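seq as requested:
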Amino acid sequence: MPRATDTAYEAVRKMILSGEAGAGTRLGESELAEALGLSRTPVREALQRLGADGLVEVLPHRGARVVRWTRQDLAEIFELRALLEPYAAARAARIGQDQSVLADLAGQCAAMERAVADGDLDRVAQLNSRFHAAIIDASGNRRLPAMLTSVMHAPLILGTFRRYDADSMARSMNHHRELVAALAAGDPGWAESVMRAHIRAAAAHLTEQEENEQR
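struct tokens:
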């Protein structure tokens, strides 16, 4: 049986990442506890965990609020990702990966492509996050996951994939496949360059969409 805190964490996290609870939405402890059929204590603990993840801003004695990202926030997030994730990809290629890791990554690529074909963008976002986390884990650097936790979720909240056109989506999926190929080849320079291009393309597209929406 899952712990009540874990149940609350997963439920509220899903609300945020699906867009059900949009940026700036207040998440009251008592309201969430009633909706989830739980006491306030596990809900409070879940909100603290989500705060540590960078998904919510905890409000003393008032629950929490879903983080609202500014343009400056986005610039800083993608700057960090462009520095750390190419390093992770290069390191993962340098130390080498066994066939089970490569097969798992390839399977995630295929699952993402099926989700794209089905138009299930929430599933695409979830799988994308899992894929990037797997490459970070494959780097063997135990400090990287904690360093990247808060910035890995931001694009999901903003619905990055909902803003992609067909060409942008195809480019993103191709980058994933090429990353797996670079890891399989044990080529750190290739893996690093593909990951950097992948992050920069996402940043450029998101910035362009933000500017278009503000016109």
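DSSP finds ten helices and three strands in the chain.
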